[in-house]
Design brief:
single chain, 80 residues, 4 helices, globular
């Protein structure tokens, strides 16, 4: 990184992805009871996501939606 990059703002796409990640991590933290457990889950292939890691899927709006739906189902005890 260049010395002048420290104060650079995120572009719209980066900002949107950052917000989406924070939102999903917050939901996962609620579901799993701790941020450490949520982060571990985000980096583990999930059977309900066709063995994709949630962290990889949230890079697209469609993938983020799939991860969010799964977390909400898990929150209510519905895994399929």
């Amino acid at each position: 990184a260049k010395a002048g990059d420290a104060g650079r703002k995120l572009d719209v796409a980066q900002s949107s992805r950052t917000w989406q990640f924070a939102k999903i991590l917050g939901l996962a933290t609620e579901v799993f009871g701790s941020q450490d457990k949520a982060e571990a889950w985000m980096d583990t292939p999930a059977m309900a996501l066709d063995q994709h890691k949630p962290i990889d899927l949230i890079r697209t709006p469609e993938g983020a939606s799939m991860v969010e739906v799964l977390l909400k189902r898990m929150e209510y005890g519905v895994y399929t």
